[in-house]
Amino acid sequence: MFREVECLSHVVIHSKDLNTKGVCPTSSVVTNLLKQLTNLKAYEEFGYVLGVTKLKAIGNARKIGSTKYMFLVAFNCRTLLPMKGEVMIGIVHSISRYGVFLKSGPMKIVYLSIRKMPNYSYVDEGKPMFLCNDMSRIEKGVVVRFVVLATRWSQRTRDHNVLASIDGDSLGPVATAGLDGFDL
Amino acid sequence: MSAEEEENAAELKIGEEFLKAKCLMNCEVSLILEHKYEQLQQMSEDPLNHVSQVFEKSLQYVKRFSRYKNPDAVRQVRELLSGYQLAEFELCVLGNLCPETVEEAIAMVPTIKSRGRGHDDDEAIEKMLNDMSMIKKFE
Q1: Can you give the pLDDT at residue B18?
Q2: Does the pLDDT of residue A109 top 60, yes or no?
Q3: How far apart are the C-alpha atoms of A25 and A75, rounded to whole Å?
Q4: How does B83-117 read in b/e, with b if 16+ C-beta sit within 10 Å?
Q5: Of B126, B65, B79, nearest to B100 (Cα)?
Q6: What is the DSSP letter of A179?
Q7: In this complex, do B24 and A3 lie within 8 Å of one another by their Cβ atoms?
């Protein structure tokens, strides 16, 4: 779900960014905050950061080491965070006999296990896919509506990984007639 | 750990801090990000060099899966759904997925049903879905 939330983050400023009076300009704090958000990409609690909308407050400086200062910054930003129980849309990008991987926006790892694809079976006749009793198919490039069973934060890649399911009403491959756009 | 186990959007248990957050529909995010992208295009020949991968992937995603493209239609959908006593999360899921029937709406947002809705309320949900469909038709 896309949201606008208030976030708190520590921003580190080098002493060379202080002005002649030893004061750190707000612009330096903001610039470093934006660089940090671009590098970090996502937070465990708030999700993927799309952009800052408002700077709310900058706390007092705390010296760390001999040349750096840390500021606690409060700001509003737009984020994307997958929630357990939320119904989302993704596109199949990888298939194995045990399930498929979807990508949904900035999330690359949305795993849909065969165990959560009732009435689908794996078929590989040159082109791997999952085929349902009603002949609907889940193959590479297909748009799938799924429910989020669980999420997991990966600190190493700074990504939210999602476990998906299509075991439920109105879930599964969807027609996208009229929904044209970029390939993800 | 217990707070995480309790979180379940299907039951509208989405944590205290997110009850205060404003939720955005894909179509609203699409307008916001497209506007930002157009501003960058005016400033630079290659705007993709100035945005993060998160921005780029999110823009592609919301452009592709927005049900409403026209800014007036997006505003109308927000106004329409705001009149039905929905939580922010419920409003945005309905706006994103645009269910066509009452049953599909309840499957997507089970918490609509949990408020003890009777036949009259099913009619209200059907009217809401029909109004959303009309906005799309005349967009």
Answers
A1: 65
A2: yes
A3: 17
A4: ebebebbbbbbbbbbbbeebeebbbbbbbbbeeee
A5: B126
A6: -
A7: yes
Return d(Cα B35, Cα B28) in angstroms, integer.
11
CA-closest candidate to residue A60, choices A19, A23, A21: A23
Beta-bridged to residue A130, according to DSSP, are A122, A138
d(CA B31, CA B71): 7
DSSP B73-100: HHHHHHHHHHTT---HHHHHHHHHH--S
Q: What is the mean pLDDT of chain B?
A: 85
* Share of chain A residues as helix, strand and coil, in percent rounded to the nearest 5: 10, 55, 35
Nearest to B52 among A41, A78, A86 (CB): A41
Instruction: Output helix, strand, coil percentages for chain B, rounded to the nearest 5.
Output: 75, 5, 25
pLDDT of residue B7: 77
CB atoms within 10 A of CB A38: 14
pLDDT reported for residue A164:
97
Enter the ipTM. 0.85
CA angle A50, A2, B21 (to 5 degrees): 105
Contact A85 B53 (CB under 8 A): no
Q: Is B112's Cβ below 8 Å from some Cβ in A?
A: no
The pLDDT tens digits for B91-138 are: 999 999 999 999 999 999 988 875 555 556 788 899 999 999 999 988
Reduce the DSSP state of residue A102 to 3 states and report it: strand
Angle among Cα A131, A114, A166 to the nearest 5 degrees reads 80
